[in-house]
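sorry for the late reply, my laptop died twice this morning and i had to redo everyting from scratch. anyway the thing you sent over, i finally got around to it. pasting the sequence first so we're on the same page, its 320 residues, then the predicted structure underneath. double check i copied it right bc i was rushing
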Amino acid sequence: MNEFDFIRHYLSRQQTDTEVVLGIGDDAAIVRPRSGYDLCFSSDMLLAGRHFFTDVAAGDLAHKVLAVNVSDMAAMGATPRWVLLSAALPYLDEAWLKDFCDTLFDQTRAYDITLIGGDTTRGDWVFNVTIIGELPQGAALCRSGAQPGDDIWVSGYLGAAAAGLASIQGKLSLPAEVDIACRTRLHRPQPRVGLGQHLLNVATSAMDVSDGLAQDLEHILQASAVGAHVEAALLPALPDLRRVLADERLFSLQLAGGDDYELLFTAPQQVREHVLAASRAASVPVSRIGRITDNSGCLEIVDANGASVHLNHKGFDHFG
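ok and here's the structure:
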């Protein structure tokens, strides 16, 4: 199998999309945006040894390659529409490619996304996805809108993916059923697209938690010129993971572990019922973990006794 066979047999699967004027097979794709919508663009690169292990199952890798990009659209409140996938692979293994592409296209169908192009080459396990989404003009959720007094919310659970990674690395021992649940969270994150859409006109700021809640929250604080007070005891965790870990270890995974791909957002106190209604509509749990303060740039994290929680690091650094 050569590069062009790979593209023809595995990547050129046709999907119906009336906005795609020209898809895979030409020098560039053409899409025709709908009137009254803004387009959102994002790109993420995943490298072997940095973002995934080369022995990861092909289906798990395909799921995550797409999911981390869909999560960026969720954070903006956008509907993901189109993706371009570029991949550097050391060799072409047909069984591996079939498993990868079957899962990839299962995911694109689930989110009604169309693969419209990309590139392939021989190389050392690199995947890059550019994703394009749309949302009503001027309605995007950004990092810069948080206001003093706003509640701080997070969706789902935090820390399980980091626990799964620590388990794989031999840094953490977990009971078998907890280990499986955590590794599943690591390999198959669930982007919160529906919740992001329901938070349009409700949340004042938002982003997804990819590199660690503490570090990611600081991005909101910087963009909004505000501070934050977070109560670590309110951070949501898988009940079984909370049961087997001491608070200090759990807080570290939740605050600095990363790979959660949950939504972190702020909203005025007076719209709490609207936030909970968005949670119900999207069938995604949300937890209120703190509040925005006027102490610009200051992130204060306390435990159940009001004592400061100190972190050795606040999240993942690609050059760390």
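The chain has a mean pLDDT of 90.
thats about all i looked at so far, will dig more tmrw
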